[in-house]
Predict the structure.
Amino acid sequence: MTLKLTCPNCGPRYTTEFWFGGEPVPRATPAAPGVDALRADFERVWLRTNVAGVQSERWFHHAGCRRWLVTERDTRTNVFHGHG
Ligand SMILES: [Zn+2]
């Protein structure tokens, strides 16, 4: 089953045209003394919350407008909200 995602620039498209960019996480602030900056950056990029429910996600439309979009998807049903 291929999901459809609505790109705000290109309209409805299959998710095979997109790259999943994970959950939007704010960039870490400069590390305070005593904080392992490398570890904090690793956790920000690779350790995802992956909730069972609606979560915000970043998607890159590589086969279309080549722009990032942020949308919401229910991980239990794969139904997109917002741009979906
Ligand atoms: Zn697009």
User: Anything to note?
Assistant: The radius of gyration is 15 Å. The beta strands are 4-7, 11-14, 19-20, 54-60, 68-74, 79-81. The chain has a mean pLDDT of 87.
